[in-house]
């Protein structure tokens, strides 16, 4: 089963890291990613640009409205995600714990099973 690990943190805190701090966190995360890749368990990984670059299409009963910025005002923002292949929820929780150790501080990791959908019925490489 594929699981998405959604990464939330306080964007202003992460954005204030020095290049050295950011590089150190990324090196620790890369160690976890490298191991998962070697095991054939790592899918796509993305680090999102700041919410100031976000655009939201808000649905309504009438015409959808396009607005600048993230969907909701919160203390934590959605900053990126991992997709991992695991047999059990317990396995993906252990991976999320490793990511939390590699990237200490506040924030959270939301774990969600992924349902893969191919509109044309053909598996993508």
From TrEMBL:
In which domain of life is the source organism classified?
Bacteria
InterPro entries noted in UniProt: Dimeric_a/b-barrel, YCII
Cite the YCII-related domain residue spans from the record.
1-114
By sequence similarity, the record places it as follows: Belongs to the YciI family.
PANTHER family per the record? BLL7171 PROTEIN, BLL7171 PROTEIN-RELATED
Q: What is the name listed in the Swiss-Prot or TrEMBL entry for this protein?
A: YciI family protein
Q: Which organism is it from?
A: Caulobacter sp. 73W
